[in-house]
Structures are given as structure tokens and as C-alpha cells.
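Example record

The entry below shows one chain as it appears in the dataset: sequence first, then C-alpha cells.
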Amino acid sequence: MRISVVTLGCKVNQCESAALTEAFAARGHTSVGPDEPADVCVVNTCTVTGRTDYQSRQSIRKVVREHPDATVIVTGCYAQTRPDAIADIPGVSLIVGTEDKERIPDLVAEPLPERPRRIVGDPAGIRTCSAPPLDRFSGHTRAFLKIQDGCNAFCSYCIVPYARGRSRSLPEEDVLERLRRLGRNGYREVVLTGIHLGAYGQDLEPPTDLARLLRRAETAAPVERLRLSSLEPLEAEGVAETIRAGRRICPHLHIPLQSGDDGVLAAMNRHYDSAFFAGLIRRLVDAIPDLGVGVDVLAGFPGESENAFLRTVALLEALPVAYLHVFPYSRRPGTAAADLPGQVPEAEKKNRCETLRALSQRKRQAFAERFVGRTLSVLIEDKRDPATGLKRGFSENYIPVLVESGPGAAARRIVPVRTERASAGRLFGRVAP
């Protein structure tokens, strides 16, 4: 059969879609693109915001419309939390929740009823981190490796613990073996990812932690570069010395702030204050040369006054961060924040997001300008920049770099690039001799 997998959302979802694609291939099926004829279409959904719920529904409808004769299967976090809403979409054959996602390649061989069949359990009972070995990560120059799943934090705005269940980790030996497999298949960089990555190892027996895993990966050297996805503020400092002392772990951290106002942080159930966050970022930047720090920030949380928002802007303006990921608060039924007073109007959320995104552009440009005239290690990607036609890649500290074509600028290689100028948060340069 011809199988199409459409993915929305985070790097963990991308890992799981890649595993599904590989599992289908192992059973003799053929992977096809979303615009090609398909016998089975899998939509791996996201539910982190109301916007992603909408995008998930739109993607499902698009797949049904463009593949009227295909078996349409919906899985992912939106399928786990809102199976009833998906069941109302005509043309869906199967809805699969978190616990049974890996069974999809076998489920397609079973007869399906006319009405959508639902296989949606309670993720709270899942106790192991399921991450089938991957040999290929189609369409990506770097590979993602899920080493942790679930979350115990229950921030008041977040639906993800209800969609993913409790925190659970992939054993260290399994992580190292999967890294070796990806390295043997030509991947120069692997991004270690999870829903709550900094909680890695706490559930294992004996318990371990992310810093120990990174030290083992540094010694084993299964790939040239390791990059970390998002780490919580209370956990980021634990890996700083490992990054500083090593050669393979990229000097790049993504750390969610969410708000620079202490009252809002308390209402979010975030267990730090703005002074701790500011001190953390400064200590990390002082300790790790050329560290690139990205920050998540949430605009328009219930009760966020204009002054509270301005405190967030002022904090971020003062900190040495490289970029922001900006999100409007999204009211999620079933979360504590959904019933809080002081819901911020949508138009005001939009205005606040625009202010923060403009700040992010200034931060990106200022950070890139620091590295003009220097030689950076850049992983060249398969695709060219559509606006300039130049080859593109990312430095170790996650600056986008556009590279003049020439000897040495081959895709999927890590090459030294001498930078010449910065524009719109990107660096331009040539491969160094």
C-alpha cells in the first residue's frame, strides 16, 4: 500500500511520524508525499494551542478531501484529547490515542467499520518511553531522537500532560544505540528531544539524569554534534558544565520563560521567579562561550495586565538572549487557567505578540552581528534558501547561515564558514579554505 503521513506540531511528533513511516516500510508498504495518491493517510495531530487544534482539523479535512478513497487515520495529541470532535469529521476511519500510536501499521490490516473506530485509552497509565529505533529521518538533514515522553509539571495553561501522560525515559543504553544507528546512517547532528527533556532519567532504575547521559554520549562519540531541545529553567544549569567542557554538544539552549512578571508566573504554576531566570541566563552566557539562548514567552495569560506585560518586555530586552518563540495564550478546557478571571481579549494578545516578535527580530540581528568576521562550524542542509538561492545551514549556536556555493559546501557536511555580514538575523559567508 501507499502510505502518506502528515505531521503537525513538535519535534516529538516528528520523531513518532518518522518511526511510523519506517514501521510501514518494514511491512512492505511505500511512503508517498502528501500530494501523491495514497491508500492510507495518517494525520499526526497537535493540541498545544487552540490554533493548532484548528490546524489539526483543517489538515484532517484536507486529507479527506484530497484522498477520498483512502483510509484516513488520525492520531497524536488532539486525537487523544478530542476524539469526539474528530469523529464528527466525515471520512475519518480510525482515531488512535497516545498509547496505541505504534500499533497503527498493524491496525490498517484489520477491517474498519463505516463509522470511525476509536482506540483512545488513558495515557496516565503509560510507564515506558516508547521510541522505536530509527535508521532514517526522511526530509531532514539533522535527525531528532525522542529520549523522554510525558510531563509531571502540570503548568496551569498546558494540556500536554493530559495528552501524553506522566514523564518517562528511554534507558541510557537504548539512547546510545539509537545515536550509533543514526551516526552510521550519515547523520552528523542529532537533536535530543522530549516533552519534558530535563526530567530525563528520574523514572529509571537506578535513576539517572540528562547530564550523565550527555557525558556518556560525549565519550562514546556516536555522532559529530548533539543538540538539545527545550529545557526548563530549573534544569538547564545542570547541563551547563557538560556543554562547556565537551566538544560535541552544541552551545545552544532553548529555555522557556513564559512571563517576566512574578504574579503571572505563580498563576502559571511555574516554580521560579523573574530574578532567578535573569540570573540563570547571565550565568549560562558567562559560563559557555558563544552560547545561543532561545526563550519561549506566552502573551495574554489570564490576569496579565499591561504593566505585567511591560515587565516581561523589559526583562527580555535586558537579557543576552538570541531569539524568542512567541505564543498567544490559548484557553484549553480541562486546564486550571481556563477558569481564571481576567481573560485577555484576542486583539490585545495579538498586539502583545507583535511587540514580542519585533523584539525577537532585534535580538536575532544583534546576536548574529556578534559573529561577523568569524569562522563558524556550519551543518549544510539539503535545501537552498528560496530568496537568495544560497546554500543554508545552522551554526553550532543555532544562527542561520547562508553559504556561497563552492568547493566544500556539500549538503550534510559540517564545514567551517567565514562569515562576512549579517542581515535579518542571518549570517552570510563562504566556506573557509
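Notes for this example: Residues 323 and 360 are 5 Å apart (CA to CA). The domain at 375-431 is CATH 2.40.50 (OB fold (Dihydrolipoamide Acetyltransferase, E2P)).
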